[in-house]
Amino acid sequence: MGGLHEQQRNRRKYFVKINWENIQSAYNDQYALSAQTKNNEVYDYASILQYHLTAFTSNGKNTMTIPDQDLEYLISNFKSGFSFYDMAEVNQVYSCPSASCTVSCQNEGFRMQAVDKTTCECQCPSGLKGTTCEELDTDADCGKIINLSNGGSEEIKMTSYTQGKTCTWLVKGESDSIIKATVTSVDLPFSSQNDCYHWLEFRDYLIGDEGKELCGQSTTTKTYTQANIGKVSPFMIRFNSQKTQTPGTGFTVKVEAVKSGCISSPCKTGSLCTEGSGDGSYTCSCQNGLSGKNCDEFRAPSYNLCDHEDDFGTCLFDRDPSSDIGWNFNTRLCDWRGCGSGVLTRGTGYQFLTLTPYYDGVPWNYGSKAAIKTSAQLTAVDRCLSFDYSLGNYEQGSFLTEINVYVEGTGKTKTNVKNLKTTTDYTWKTETVSISAVDNLVVMIYTDLYRSHVIKTFQNIS
Questions:
Q1: For 188-208, what is each residue's pLDDT tens digit?
Q2: Pfam families this protein is in (predicted)?
Q3: Are 106 and 145 in contact (CB under 8 A)?
């Protein structure tokens, strides 16, 4: 269907970490980030395109890890077809709903239209139904749509139930809410192998995916906290007692909406955001020489290394969105005449930053520009910029692909401080640039592209 693997999408850093040291080197390219993914849907662990966590392992250890290990079941469960969000993604990319299909789907539902364009409807996550996915798919005597303000809570209680039930609760908060569900008591039957006969299901990641199941007997509290996926979404709880089994005494769950400090993504330069006490406060974990409340300051003395093994990670530099053409990542690049004429890799075999439209199938024009630039506030002191680079050898005629370093700041107009345009012939070279102190300094590394086959790469920017 034309999709890349989930772990290669360009917003993966908040959802998965690549353990390059555990990957068979021949398969490193399967983990290189692609800057060209569309990201119409949130990162989906249940996607048919998500590799298993030990795929292509060289030593039996995980080649990927995720922040919430309790969600690993979404990756490890057997997959025989598209996930709900795979279907939504494919449906949008191939423009299956035409302009005439205008129904507005709610609660993570998406528009679908028949090939003959005669019908237009919403595809709803399981547990929801209705023309716009606004109704619960639930038994008449249980389930509810619960709307909470920050600080508000409600109790879901079933102290007796019958076999054969399916119940759904959909919990919604405010635009800056995170939903929590705390189980204070549970008594639901299970087998000697700890398989649930009757169970609660908590969809605390994406409501279109399967949730975490709970059964057994306990009065010890257990809390399910909604994942911060970068957008507001509902929280779903389902109860299933369809299997023929003597019922337990039921369960009690408290749901509450707490004010999130992290949902607006205040922490910059790839820094981790940790929620406060539910009052909208947060803490950013600054790394790699960065500091400040939001990790958006680069004071002196400080050192920042961008080795790109974690994409842009906590790198001081990031893509400039005004670029004509996007950067990408690769693990191995060959000379335009073939790999026998030249191959470029890192010593580790891990990924590096590239501008290679010929390899990546990226549209470009003569003179197309790509740039990365500093994304933090820099203290006004003399600084040193160092980077490893490589320029391919397909530079012919009067036009030469170039690397240019620019600086600007208060009282200083955009100034070129370094120009590079000589091929390195598939080898790495190190360049060092001295930068004088200036307030509100911004450093930009520009490229001007004049050959589609030219390989332009960076690693170890500091």
A1: 999 999 899 999 999 999 999
A2: Astacin
A3: no
Mark residue 101 as left, alpha or beta (left: phi above 0; alpha: psi -120 to 50; beta: remaining).
beta
CA distances from 82 to 78, 90, 384 (A): 12, 10, 49
Q: Report the C-alpha gap between 433 and 405 in whole angstroms.
A: 9
Q: State yes or no: cis peptide before 301, omega within 30 of 0.
A: yes
Residue in the block written with tokens 């700890």: 194
Name every residue whose Cβ is closer than 8 Å to that of residue 175 and which is 6 or more positions away in sequence: 232
Give the chain's largest Cα–Cα span.
83
Element (H, E) at 76: helix 73-76
Domains parsed from the chain with CATH numbers: 6-93 (3.40.390.10), 144-259 (2.60.120.290), 299-459 (2.60.120.200)
Say whether pLDDT at 451 is over 60.
no
User: Mean pLDDT across the stretch 397-425?
Assistant: 85
How many CB atoms are located within 10 Å of the residue 317 CB?
Answer: 24
Q: Which residue has the tokens 């589609």?
A: 452
Residue (of 328, 386, 334, 399) closest to 361 by Cα position:
328
The answer to whether 107 and 125 are in contact (CB under 8 A) is yes
Average of per-residue pLDDT values in the chain: 89
446, 418 contact by CB (below 8 A):
no
Residue 452, pLDDT score: 41
Helix (H, G, I), strand (E, B) or coil at 119: coil
Gyration radius from the chain CA atoms: 26
Q: 11-48: per-residue pLDDT in tens?
A: 788 899 999 999 999 999 999 988 767 667 789 999 99
